[in-house]
Design brief:
about 300 residues; mainly beta; Immunoglobulin-like; 2 domains; 5-stranded antiparallel beta sheet; 4-stranded antiparallel beta sheet; 1 helix; about 0% helix; elongated
Length: about 300
């Protein structure tokens, strides 16, 4: 717990100082380590400010944080990866799953009732789940074969809810993430095209970008602003290991879109984004962004320099 909220840390088995992996003004609860080494966790949506649980991932060095999918809506949490590679989660509507072939979460047909907490997959493919038939009953651990209309009780205690089944067995070692972090105090962020977005922006309307962080009173502190090129690209340097928030403005200084939540970048991280809230399934165009044709030095938005707010 850091400043009254749950944060995710990585701890070497041999001891030493733990590494903070999350840097948002809200709690983050881990639920699994994916086969590719990423850590999946639940936090409010919008990240750092919202109250509706959503599913996110981050690499084992704290870099590359993103929502697993961008079809935000009802609550989704307690995600676990099954043997097929799908991500199974609990939602306000029952069980759901993310599969590599779809950009949206899909409902998972399961017996009626309420599910809660983590699930465990046995070596035979059965699942152990926390389930109850209705809100007046207690949760109990049930065994379920995916696709079946029936479940078998495993652990049930009258008047007491039972959650989070876990198998005592050898766990496959996830792939090790080769960290690309540099020994720098700051981080570099390259946006290829801010017009690539779930939100509609008129061509040529985006003039500049502002970046904020959280101040000591949990408010927003402006770090600086930088121009956005006609093709929607910008390249900025921001402080590492701090909560960050982006705002896009037009030529008159009017806000076109501002993030409702926060994200972060690790110190020494270099990250490229396809667009602004474009979705992890979106691929970039095969083109050199205009901002890099002008300069390969990022605009300093670390809060330690005077920043120009010019435009195209």
């Amino acid at each position: 717990i850091i400043h009254g909220r749950f944060a995710i840390e990585a701890q070497d088995i041999g001891g030493g100082k733990p590494l903070a992996l999350t840097h948002i003004p809200a709690s983050a609860i881990p639920s699994d380590i994916l086969h590719d080494g990423r850590i999946v966790f639940s936090a409010g949506n919008p990240l750092g400010t919202g109250e509706t649980p959503e599913i996110y991932t981050v690499y084992s060095d704290g870099s590359g944080v993103e929502s697993y999918r961008c079809d935000h809506g009802s609550a989704r949490y307690s995600a676990k990866q099954d043997a097929s590679g799908d991500l199974i989660f609990v939602s306000a509507k029952g069980l759901g799953r993310f599969t590599s072939s779809r950009a949206q979460g899909m409902p998972l047909e399961a017996p009626a009732g309420e599910f809660a907490g983590d699930f465990a997959e046995t070596t035979t493919g059965d699942w152990l789940l926390s389930w109850r038939p209705d809100s007046n009953s207690s949760f109990r651990i049930m065994r379920w074969q995916k696709g079946s209309e029936r479940m078998e009780p495993v652990i049930s205690e009258a008047g007491t809810s039972v959650f989070q089944p876990a198998l005592i067995t050898r766990r496959p070692v996830p792939n090790r993430h080769p960290s690309g972090l540099h020994d720098w105090p700051n981080a570099n962020l390259l946006c290829l095209n801010a017009y690539t977005s779930k939100f509609r922006f008129a061509p040529g309307s985006i003039h500049s970008v502002r970046v904020y962080t959280e101040d000591v009173n949990s408010g927003a502190k402006l770090l600086g602003s930088a121009p956005v090129e006609p093709d929607g690209s910008f390249f900025v340097q921001v402080p590492g290991d701090q909560s960050l928030q982006i705002e896009l403005l037009d030529a008159s200084g009017k806000t076109l879109k501002r993030e409702s939540g926060f994200f972060w970048m690790r110190r020494g991280e270099q990250r490229g984004c396809v667009g602004c809230h474009a979705g992890p399934e979106t691929a970039p165009e095969n083109a050199v962004p205009a901002v890099l044709l002008k300069s390969t030095t990022p605009a300093d938005l670390t809060g330690n320099a005077q920043n120009a707010s010019g435009g195209h």
